[in-house]
Amino acid sequence: ARLRSEILELIRGSANPLVVILLIAGLASAILGEVTDAAIIGGVDFFGGLISRRLPPVRVAALVQVAGLLCAIPAAFLFDWERVTAGDIGWSLVSGATVGLGLGLFYTALARGVISLVAPVTGAVGATIPVIWDFTRGEIPGTPAVVGIVLAIAAIVSVVTALLFGIVPALQASRPMLSMTLREGGRSGTTSLLRQ
């Protein structure tokens, strides 16, 4: 986000068209990278949730972490691996274990719960935590971050309200009636066919 705002400031302050074109191309590639990241992470979450309904969620989380590690090791050798310190490795191991635990819990929630509720709540909480962390350290979140958090909270409240006060009671109220109607409808349908 900071890179985008810096690029936009450079675009506004530059009179050279070539510089503006290069800056716009850089901004477009950054946005494309962010969209690609979101699609990959969303795809992993979606398919991980589906698979965790058939396999134990902790096993799915472990497989996802191993796949991530297999991608990270070659990347580490390609990009400044000589600058990696023992502290970096330690923090990476702690981060990997924490993310693995979080994924295990996330996939368990997806396997047991309503995906349309679990996924947005998890996404909103995951996006809000870094902003809160920055706020506790004295950094003021920008307007887009505050608007995003407010919209995410509103979306969560909307989904939860729809589920709690609309869909769930409707399903509970219709279950006995549906089964009774099917039973009665099945009998009367068979009886009317036998009479003909």
Task: Summarize this structure briefly.
The chain is an all-alpha fold.
- Tell me the helix content: over 70%
Task: Kindly state the number of beta strands.
Answer: 0
Using the CA coordinates, give the radius of gyration: 25 Å
Task: Supply the number of helical segments.
Answer: 6
Q: What's the pLDDT, averaged over the residues?
A: 76
Instruction: Please tell me what the overall shape is.
Output: extended
Structural notes for this entry:
The protein has 196 residues and is mainly alpha-helical. It is 87% helix and 0% strand. The radius of gyration is 25 Å and the shape is extended. The N and C termini lie far apart (73 Å). 7% of the residues are buried.
Topology:
Elements: H1 2-13, H2 17-51, H3 57-78, H4 86-112, H5 115-136, H6 143-195
